[in-house]
Fold this sequence. Notes:
Layout: E1 4-14, E2 20-31, E3 36-41, H1 47-54, E4 62-67, E5 70-71, H2 77-87, E6 88-92, H3 103-113, H4 118-131, H5 147-159, E7 165-169, H6 177-192, E8 196-200, H7 204-208, E9 212-217, E10 220-226, H8 250-263, H9 265-303, E11 308-311, E12 352-353, H10 360-367, E13 372-378, E14 380-383, E15 388-391, E16 394-397, E17 400-403, E18 412-415, E19 422-426, H11 427-434, E20 444-451, E21 454-466, E22 477-480, H12 482-491, E23 500-505, H13 511-520, H14 527-571, H15 573-581, H16 586-627, H17 636-662, H18 666-671
Parallel strand pairs: 3-8, 3-9, 6-7, 7-8, 17-22, 19-21
Antiparallel strand pairs: 1-2, 1-4, 4-5, 9-10, 11-23, 12-14, 13-23, 14-17, 15-16, 15-20, 18-21, 19-22, 20-21
The structure holds adenosine-5'-diphosphate (ADP) and magnesium ion.
Amino acid sequence: MAFVELKNLNKFYPISGSEDFQALKDVNLSLDKGELVSIVGESGSGKSTLMNLLGGLDSQFSGEITIDGQNMSTFKEKDFVNYHKEKIGFVFQSFNLVSHLSVLDNVTLAMTLSNVDKKTRVARAREVLKQLGLDDQYKKKPSQLSGGQKQRVAIARALVNDPDIIIADEPTGALDSQTTDQVLDIIQDIAKTGKLVIMVTHSEKVAARSTRVVTIDDGKIIGDIRQGEIALHENLLEIQQKSKSKNLTFFAAIRLALLNMKEKLARNILIALGGSIGIMSIIVMLSLGEGVNDYLTETMNANVNPLVSEVRMPIVMETNNSENADSSMMIMTPAGAEIPAGSAPSGPPAGVTQSDPFGEEDLEQLRNIPHVAEVNLAYSSLTIGSDNVIYEGEKYAFMNFGTTSGMTDSNILYGAFPDEGEILITEGVANQMAGTAEEALGKEVTVDVTIDGESLEKNYVISGIYSAGQAIGAFESVYMSAESFETLTAENNLEVEPNVIYLVSDDPENTQAIKDEVAALGYRGSSADALASTFTQMLDIFTYILSGVAGISLFVSAIMILTVLYISVVERTQEIGVIKAIGGRKKDIRRIFVSESFLIGLFSGILGVGIAYLITVVGNIVVENLFDTAILNMTPAFAVFGIVTSVIISMVAGLMPAQKAAGLDPVEALRHD
Ligand code: ADP
Ligand code: MG
């Protein structure tokens, strides 16, 4: 039996609906190794159709094709892949070299698909290129070669896996007569090595150099003339072992994708830039959330005893109390003083704001909250313009007045907590009155403070300087001990009820439960808690806006990547055809495209992380100038999250184009130009 046997081969192309076009009609042909067969015939007679069937690019036929004893009708995808890898080499009229790959990479492509190691791959390719007189050209890109050189590269690519059959569809069709001779010499040499060379040609001259001329007309063989034999000699390529049934590795696919992306660098940079916006938004959003959270936690921990919950009476709208001018904001005034309860005072005058005093019922209710170990009563008021420290005849205004017990000493800059007859003042007041804060220590001043509508004056010694902190709402303040306060009010015949209560928890773990219960009972928590929740609300709004931006831009970039990969599939149709013809599986092609989307995702992600990092650095410099604290905290986890998200989105977007590429019909793909 001959190496190739065609029996009653028929080919029908479906045209429209039920209509078929018959391109091959009962073709019978036996071909053997060592033959150089020319297929001649008019244009449209069925030559290419026959080549595509022989080459296993088209598997739709009726009749029988037997290669080396194997019936092609029984071939599965895997068998076709192996057939392309091991038995067949294609040479095309239009060369079909992959433009973004070097000559060497074009020739090694088939071996790359078979996962042949790099050393073997390069050695074998260079050996073949040398045989074809191209050894000094292997680094060039196809566009840098002449037509004859291109066709020789294509022949090298066909030969490199040492196939049994070479199929050449008009290999000299695009060449001038001199290079045609060169290429024909090579083709003759190939036949001499014992391969079966089947060549489609229009040219009498070309046909004259073959051992056999088969003429086709209208899908039928009308002539088959043998015209001499070729003297066989040894294989001109020493190929030790054939690489079998290994596949394209992930790294090789990445490399192929990279080479293609490098060719369209500007485009890919723009895509990565577009894709990075969404990732950047996500990371900035996360960093902002983290930063604000850190800031709040830090501020609260610096000022608040973890056991203590501050409680104030709810705001009643009829009074002069207004929510945003209330109390000491960030400044805590914990106190341990038992301030005697008395008759309810009249409301404070305009310009003075203070929380309403607690009644007996309120105290009872708060005492009964589970886990409350201690109830401390305190007093605090916020005034505008009426409270002053008088020193050497000059008045220095402060806004917040309160009692000290339970205040953490972490914010005391100089000196100590005040004893009877002493006060603690904030840095700003101290600076104003004495030049430097430290200088104010030990000075005797008159404190003029409005309590329950009465202006009280008394002399005190400054025992310590307190930092008001940099937070918004940190007011200049004067604090004294609860005992001093009691003395002051008693001397002026005032009975002041507590308007701030500090509940001490039996365990830090239970503090939050106490705060929740306080809120449930309708009381207000500390103004720091309120500020924290305002911050959290602002942060939520920011987060919504940024999530919106992130979501939309991620969606847009996914569509962009999808579009670009579709365009890439169209641009690379011919390349996909070539890869299939040299034994690339659907999987390999999918892998190359998925690698490309992986890389786009990776680059967008890295770019997004980079831009986000710059934004956090610049943003923090700006914010630090304003508030003396960094508010954007980008952690490594966010960077990793951003990159992973980017890669996932990009790969999902790349699935459809990759699928489309993998599903292309090689015959169609190779016709594409
Ligand atoms: P040749 O290579 O000899 O010029 P082809 O084998 O390409 O001829 O085509 C043979 C005939 O089959 C032509 O009439 C052509 O129009 C037709 N044909 C080829 N491919 C298709 C196809 N995919 N669908 C329908 N008809 C086709
Ligand atoms: Mg043709």
